[in-house]
Amino acid sequence: MKLIELKEGEKAKVLSLFGGSNFVCKVKNMGITEECFIEVLKNDGRGPLIIKQDGSKIIIGRMMASKIEVERL
Amino acid sequence: MSEKIVIVGHPNSGKSSLFNSLTGLDQTVGNWPGVTVEKKEGFFFIDDNKFEVVDLPGCYGLTPTSIDEKISLDYLLSSSPSLIVNILDGSNLERSFFLSLQLFFLDIPIIFFINKMDVAKSKGIKIDFEKLKGIFSCDIVLGSVKNGEGIEDLKILIKKNINKKVCETKYFKVSDKVYLHIEKISELLVKYKEFEKHPKFYSLKVIENDKNFAPSIFKILNEKDLSKIKSIVDEVYKDIKKKDFLTLDWFYSLSRGIVGEVTTKEFSDKKSLTEEIDNTLLNKFFSIPIFLITFLFIFFLTFFLGDIFSNFLSFLFENLSFFLTKIIKEGFLLSFLTEGVVGGIGSVITLIPYIFFMYIFLGFLEDTGYMARVVFIMDRFMHKIGLHGKSFISLVLGFGCSVPAVLSTRVLDTPKDRIKTILIIPFIPCSARLTVLIFFGAIIFGKWSFLVIFILFLLSILFAIFSGFFFDRFLLREKSEGLIMELPDYHLPTLKNLLLNSYFKVKDFLKRAGTLIFFITVIIFLLSYFPKNVEGGFIRVAGEKINFLFKPLGFDVERTVSLITGFFAKESVISTLGVLYKGEQIERVIVNRWSSVDGFVFLLFLMIYLPCIATAIVIKQETGSFLYLFGIIFYSILFAYLISFLVRYFLLLIL
Q1: Three-state SS annotation for B89-118
Q2: pTM of the full predicted structure?
Q3: Ranges B81-90, B132-141, B446-455, B464-473, most confident
Q4: Which among A33, A47, A61 has the least Cβ separation from residue B484?
Q5: For residue A16, which residues of chain B lie inside 8 Å, CB to CB?
Q6: For A15, B128, B460, B561, which has the most beta carbons within 10 A of its beta carbon?
Q7: How many CB pairs under 8 A join A and B?
Q8: For chain B, domain boundaries
């Protein structure tokens, strides 16, 4: 499933990133790498999501979040 | 000779605070060559040794995705500093080590300053210092810049470490597969002059297949080495299928491993204070009203406090003119001093309080972490004009001054996003334009001025939004890649940092705008004073020649001329009219000669037409093209004319 489909409070494992190398590099620089664990703190159904990864919180736009494949835990 | 050290850290690690506490007032804000990204340099003394320090723009890693990060990397590769002070966030070590591990590949001596230990403690994070020392062989200081902890220790270690040999991490020496391959490649690369300084870094880039580096590295290599290196790379990827930025995954897994080894965290189910606050501030329904109220309040405070100081300064300048009239009596020198010098410098200096307070408050929002929330809140609205939330910050800065706003677009990731944002900024009413509005508004509309100013203000914001749509539809249709950024925890900013940052912003403004406005005023004065036998001087003659163009808008010769000088700096519209309406009080002339429709249309035109010259220069620099600069000049004049024309005849019809 896509990251964008997760609801608030749900945890997931990142499976893969679909996009150009610039996108992949940007997302990985922020710590969202394949196999890492994330938690969705905010998903209002519109506007960006806020996710938690290790110690940091990350704002991610819906467009980018729809290119990240995850597995719900 | 002084030694050069650089501070490197990821955004929100407290980099600028560390820089400020090391250098205090001994810093200069300049530009990086070629680009107008702010370059902060300073110096400090330890005993009698002088150390130069450069504050590099924040970067997450050494694979740049924004201009900021590219600048940091280029500087590290080209300037060979004697020492890197790597600032880490003790409350978020995974992210910090990700950068630190990459920095080791540069073969530059390094020390760690682990900041925010107070925050880490409050989060229940414990760091095992001995274990950490066992992994990284460099010197490490634990501290907190905010409380001044660890700064003295850091200074002692800076002195000790300068010119020390490169240290390596034990972690890499453990037979790590990727690392062994990097070493093999760097043994080959080190023979080349181009790579001898940072062979491991270039090896890393080869394995990463970074498009910014790999092709140019391959070009330099001779055939034998090239095939050797290619076979090593193939070996790395032998058992792995995904190739994109493998090394970034590697660094993160190393980083997570180290964090697991050296820290313990108390488990707590309680929500952190930041999460509690965000529940309210980012609430689906309340976030927008709270945001609007916050910004209205800030604008109100800026202008309220700015007015007090600005009025005081105007009062001083009036008295200075009065004083000069008393001692010099009459003649060229008097006119030159009162109209040219005092008028010119005065108009700039009275603007400073507004700029100072604007930066204090915006700095406060930035430092507390609320600005990042604004990005979150505004993102979906910005999508309507093909941009994303980060651009909004630049647009907000535009209310202060367009120049730093244009510069701030450097944090945007793609050139398209930057150009679109840069083209909208000139239409955000800046504080210079607002001063002009307030000045004329008060004269023309008296007690209704507040309402009229508000309407003009709204009209120009509406036009900025319209321009956003326009550029998105017709010019740069490509969709923005989208938003990704870190959301920092809330924290209280220190007054020292706010004051220092605002002080340097004002100083920069004075340098940039001050000299320019002063020269324009002097030149306008001279042009209006000479030739002596012509009433109104040369400039009036020139104004009469082109006045027919502005007749349809109802502008007189003086206003036409002031529009030209307004291109150099918007505030100089006031001083130009002051100079041109010779001998009479500008207030009286305006009340007698301008109808309220005339005044309104003139102000409307002023809000939209032309970016000022300082903005024009940075637009050219940042977009790198005259096409965009001339495009925006043509676009703004065209629409200013059209809108003013329509509004004028509409108003004349209904009034």
Answers
A1: ECCCHHHHHHHHHHHHHHCCCEEEEEECHH
A2: 0.81
A3: B81-90
A4: A61
A5: 242
A6: B561
A7: 114
A8: 3-172, 173-265, 288-654
Structure tokens belonging to residue B37 = 């990204």
In a domain, A18, yes or no: yes
Tokens of A25: 């590099």
Give the model's confidence band at B33: pLDDT under 50 very low, under 70 low, under 90 confident, else very high.
very low
> What are the chain B neighbours of A26 within 8 Å (beta carbons)?
65, 413, 484
- Per-residue pLDDT at B73: 92
Percent of chain B residues topping a pLDDT of 70:
92
What's the confidence (pLDDT) of residue B347? 66
Mean pLDDT of chain B, nearest integer: 83
Residue A69 lies in a domain: yes
Count of structural domains within chain A? 1
> Across the interface, do B248 and A29 touch by the CB < 8 Å criterion?
yes
Q: Does A36 touch chain B (CB under 8 A)?
A: yes
The verdict on residue A45 lying in a domain is: no
CATH code for the domain in which residue A12 is found? 2.30.30.90
Give the pLDDT confidence score for residue B453 in this predicted structure: 83
Give the largest CA-CA distance in chain B: 91
The span from the CA of B113 to the CA of B7, in Å, is 10
Helices (H), chain A: 21-29, 62-65
B226-254 residue pLDDT tens = 888 888 888 888 777 666 677 888 888 88
Cα–Cα distances in angstroms (integers) from residue A26 to residues B61, B69, B99, B244, B480, in the given order? 10, 11, 14, 12, 14
Task: Give domain B3-172's CATH superfamily.
Answer: P-loop containing nucleotide triphosphate hydrolases (3.40.50.300)
ipTM above 0.85, yes or no: yes
Q: Is residue A15 part of a domain?
A: yes
Q: Which of A2, A8, A17, A28 to mutate to test the interface with B (most CBs of B within 10 A)?
A: A28
What is the Cα–Cα distance from B651 to B493, expressed in whole angstroms?
48
Mean pLDDT of B156-167: 77
Instruction: For residue B63, list chain A residues with Cβ-Cβ distance below 8 A.
Output: 25, 29
Query: In which domain, by residue range, is A18 found?
Result: 1-37+65-73
Strand residues in B189-308 grouped as ranges (E): 263-265
Per the structure block, which two tokens stand in for B224? 């034998």
Look at B376 and A48 and tell me if their CB atoms are within 8 Å: yes
Using a CB-CB distance cutoff of 8 angstroms, which residues of chain A are in contact with residue B376? 47-48, 50, 59
B260, closest residue in chain A (CA to CA): A54
| Beta pairing partners, B292 | none
How many whole angstroms separate alpha carbon B424 and alpha carbon B420?
7
Per residue in B356-401, pLDDT (tens digit) is 888 888 889 888 989 889 889 888 888 888 888 888 888 888 887 7
**Element containing residue B373 per DSSP (H, E):** helix B370-382
Q: What pLDDT, in 10s, does the model give residues B484-536? A: 888 988 888 888 888 988 888 788 777 766 676 677 777 877 887 777 676 66
Please indicate whether, in this complex, the C-beta atoms of A55 and B377 are within 8 angstroms of each other: no
Q: Is the pLDDT of residue B34 over 60?
A: no
d(CA B82, CA B5): 6
Residue type, B536: G
In this predicted structure, the answer to whether residue B257 has a pLDDT above a threshold of 70 is yes
Position B38 pLDDT exceeds 70: no
Query: In a mutagenesis test of the A interface, which of B211, B245, B392 is the best target, namely the one with the most A β-carbons within 10 Å?
Result: B245
The CATH number of the structural domain formed by B173-265 is 1.10.287.1770
Helix (H) or strand (E) segment spanning residue B142: strand B140-142
Q: Which of A27, A54, A63 sits opposite B94 (nearest CB)?
A: A54
Amino acid letter, B360: I
**Residue B431 burial (C-beta neighbours within 10 Å; 0-12, 13-18, 19+):** buried
> At CB < 8 Å, which residues of chain B contact A?
60-61, 63, 65, 91-95, 98, 211, 242, 244-245, 248-249, 252-253, 256, 259, 275, 278, 282, 284, 372, 375-377, 379-380, 388-389, 413-414, 479, 481-487, 489
